[in-house]
């Protein structure tokens, strides 16, 4: 359940932003989470509700954009969607592939006032 | 609440680290994170969110943040890393499932290398001081971090533990993470390498089941090899799985109980320690010139 710590990280970053950007409440938090980031989306939602209580993001809605894993074969340069780190190149069978996307764990946007 | 870095660690308890801070606490390393990070700015295109605007309330606005959720941890990890580097220390993050024999491997290592290196240990467990006590029985300094409900150590806890432990310059620092092959993979502590310990009493397919951890590790130690005659554990298959997830991973087979294979582990430590020493010396020479 490291999703709990990740949500604590999210709240800390939001509180820091609140100081810098002068807002007092958060309507929506939009995260980008890659499918290779080792994050359970449902655990993230569950944790966020628990962690956000009593903070500036108490009433905030959580939106999560899932980013599909994308990799490139270092040999034949074939780009392919991947579901695991150890997937083989579908064209030449080589591994490991260079991961281009899917490892994201980012706060993308906030709607604040 | 920590007045220096503003931390409130929830359930986390660090032995010897009073968190009421009635005394000004001194951070051994810089903890005033003056890190550059991308500042949010307003855009009027390409948003995932649409701002709503209700009459009578200050208008909602969209802030594009684009900040890594782990950026705070990574900043603490960078501080730890530079502290370790400055002090010529080799820090290793030992990770495994519960019951892989991590603590036995560690106590034997500490005993065998006592005469050669100054050593220190940070022990991570959810509860109890038992492991730190096992370590201290070898005569090596140890500090226990109890994470409470937390499933991993983070760089911030380790920074505080180092402050309490005050390892000597040029020492080996072993950080024994909470027994868990999932969560510690994401949290950089500032270590030189993660060392993943897998015992032959577990399944040989663990590298495929927990690929993130085996991908993040620089070394895999296959432990309890003295039990192989009694088990149906396919060593070659296990190694092939580990290399599939991480072709660059170093692999050693040891029995911390009989001592078999331990010399190879010590040589791995010596080489790495030596390379850190040369780097530190080069740095000093450059600074002095």
| Cα-atom radius of gyration of chain A | 17 Å
Overall mean pLDDT of chain B: 85
**Structural class by SSE content of chain A:** alpha+beta
CATH architecture of chain A: 2-Layer Sandwich
State the end-to-end CA separation of chain A.
31 Å
* E-strand count of chain B: 9
State the helix count of chain A.
2
Kindly state the percentage of residues in helix of chain B. 25-40%
Number of domains of chain A: 1
Top CATH class of chain A: Alpha Beta
Low-pLDDT segments, ≥5 res of chain B: 20-45
**Biggest interface between protein chains, with counts per chain?**
A-B, 35 and 42 residues
The number of helical segments of chain B is 8
Proportion of residues in extended strands of chain A: 25-35%
The backbone outline of chain B, from C-alpha atoms, is globular
Query: What fraction, in percent, of the residue positions of chain A are helical?
Result: 25-40%
- Output the helix-strand order of chain B: EEHEHEHEHEEHHEHEH
Strand percent estimate of chain B: 15-25%
Oligomer: heterodimer
